[in-house]
């Protein structure tokens, strides 16, 4: 059950602006995996100096990526983009995980790499490998082209994994042995849609083996749950996040299904389409797992300029997860300003 309370600094003023209640989801924004990945880049920069290379956006958020670029991180899509004269520089793999071929390639090139794959993604990798080791063909429920899906598929030999994106894929799949199948999922999927696909798979393949633990992560589940409760009857629901952020896009869908009249993804306050919003009195607000809190504040402030805002915090879960960085970086101290950046508040 949700507990709603008013933020002490959000008492309504007596201005002539129209009243607006913002239902602010909690939990929202950075998860433990994103926090850890950003920490790894910041710590590597402090320990080894700039440049530190990062393969793929460390997390799917421009604000974070640009902040790290300002500190000396250089983003590349593939390892062969790292110039020969910088081969002694560290390279960080993103939170989404990488196929096995990537660390192998890094070793072949004598690169020093730090793997910022979220431990919960690594857990899915292990579960997929376990299915395969036990002789099962692996069904990966996920979205084609997403780096996490590429990374998970790349843990297994070619031909031993099939991607399932939708019900049509379930219907079209023809296994070699229908009694030797196991599934895992991307960590950031819609809880509801995934349950539907698993049901459809089980109808066709009753002996389908589930992974030892749920693949959809705690952060995805908690953020969707918070949006589900908060979106009911909202005139508008905004999710702070990037278009390539899977978990953020799912939150927009969840808000729509839960009953928000309009639901939008925005990266910054400047993207709010004020002319389309019209007269609203209730706004739902959340942020994807890779979106920093400072953008949430920016959006609340943008509404304050136009409305007499009251913020109601909608608390649906308390998160205490914390993923430590690798031992190679534990001897580096973060200053309070580093911590503020890592936490997404600056
Ligand atoms: S969304 Fe989940 S799997 Fe992805 S980085 Fe965060 S905790 Fe890890």
From TrEMBL:
Binding positions (dimethylallyl diphosphate): 60, 96, 146, 245-247, 290
GO MF entries: 4 iron, 4 sulfur cluster binding; 4-hydroxy-3-methylbut-2-enyl diphosphate reductase activity; metal ion binding
Cofactor note: Binds 1 [4Fe-4S] cluster per subunit.
Gene3D superfamilies per UniProt: 3.40.50.11270, 4-hydroxy-3-methylbut-2-enyl diphosphate reductase, catalytic domain
Sites where the protein binds [4Fe-4S] cluster: 31, 118, 217
Highest taxon of the lineage: Bacteria
Enzyme class: oxidoreductase
Descriptive protein name: 4-hydroxy-3-methylbut-2-enyl diphosphate reductase
Reaction it catalyzes: isopentenyl diphosphate + 2 oxidized [2Fe-2S]-[ferredoxin] + H2O = (2E)-4-hydroxy-3-methylbut-2-enyl diphosphate + 2 reduced [2Fe-2S]-[ferredoxin] + 2 H(+); dimethylallyl diphosphate + 2 oxidized [2Fe-2S]-[ferredoxin] + H2O = (2E)-4-hydroxy-3-methylbut-2-enyl diphosphate + 2 reduced [2Fe-2S]-[ferredoxin] + 2 H(+)
The protein's role, per its UniProt record: Catalyzes the conversion of 1-hydroxy-2-methyl-2-(E)-butenyl 4-diphosphate (HMBPP) into a mixture of isopentenyl diphosphate (IPP) and dimethylallyl diphosphate (DMAPP). Acts in the terminal step of the DOXP/MEP pathway for isoprenoid precursor biosynthesis.
Pathway: Isoprenoid biosynthesis; dimethylallyl diphosphate biosynthesis; dimethylallyl diphosphate from (2E)-4-hydroxy-3-methylbutenyl diphosphate: step 1/1; Isoprenoid biosynthesis; isopentenyl diphosphate biosynthesis via DXP pathway; isopentenyl diphosphate from 1-deoxy-D-xylulose 5-phosphate: step 6/6
GO biological processes: dimethylallyl diphosphate biosynthetic process; isopentenyl diphosphate biosynthetic process, methylerythritol 4-phosphate pathway; terpenoid biosynthetic process
Pfam families given in the database record: LYTB
Species name: Pseudaminobacter salicylatoxidans
Keywords: 4Fe-4S, Iron, Iron-sulfur, Isoprene biosynthesis, Metal-binding, Oxidoreductase
Family: Belongs to the IspH family.
Keyword Secreted assigned: no
Keyword Zinc among record annotations: no
Chain sites annotated for binding (2E)-4-hydroxy-3-methylbut-2-enyl diphosphate: 60, 96, 146, 187, 245-247, 290
């Amino acid at each position: 059950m949700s507990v709603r309370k008013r933020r002490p600094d959000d008492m309504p003023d007596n201005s002539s602006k129209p009243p607006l209640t913002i239902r602010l989801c909690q939990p929202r924004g950075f998860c433990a995996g994103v926090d850890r990945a950003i920490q790894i880049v910041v710590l590597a920069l402090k320990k080894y100096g700039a440049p530190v290379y990062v393969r793929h956006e460390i997390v799917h958020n421009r604000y974070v990526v640009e902040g790290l670029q300002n500190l000396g991180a250089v983003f590349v899509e593939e390892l062969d983009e790292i110039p020969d004269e910088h081969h002694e520089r560290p390279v960080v793999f993103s939170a989404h995980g990488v196929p096995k071929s990537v660390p192998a390639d890094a070793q072949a090139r004598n690169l020093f790499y730090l793997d910022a794959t979220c431990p919960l993604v690594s857990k899915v990798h292990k579960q997929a490998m376990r299915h395969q080791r036990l002789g099962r063909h692996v069904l990966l429920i996920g979205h084609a082209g997403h780096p996490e899906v590429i990374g998970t598929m790349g843990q297994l030999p070619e031909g031993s994994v099939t991607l399932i994106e939708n019900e049509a894929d379930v219907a079209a799949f023809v296994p070699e042995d229908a009694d030797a199948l196991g599934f895992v999922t991307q960590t950031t999927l819609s809880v509801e849609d995934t349950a539907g696909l698993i049901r459809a798979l089980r109808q066709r393949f009753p002996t389908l083996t589930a992974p030892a633990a749920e693949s959809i992560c705690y952060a995805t589940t908690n953020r969707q749950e918070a949006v589900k409760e908060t979106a009911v009857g909202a005139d508008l629901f905004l999710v702070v996040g990037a278009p390539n952020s899977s978990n953020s896009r799912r939150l927009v869908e969840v808000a729509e299904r839960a009953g928000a009249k309009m639901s939008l993804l925005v990266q910054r306050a400047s993207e709010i389409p004020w002319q389309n919003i019209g007269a609203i009195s209730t706004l739902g607000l959340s942020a994807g797992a890779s979106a920093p809190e400072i953008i949430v504040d920016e959006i609340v402030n943008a509404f304050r300029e136009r409305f007499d805002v009251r913020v109601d915090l909608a608390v649906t879960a308390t998160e205490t997860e914390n993923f430590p960085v690798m031992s190679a970086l534990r001897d580096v101290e973060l200053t309070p300003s580093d911590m503020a950046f890592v936490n997404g508040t600056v």
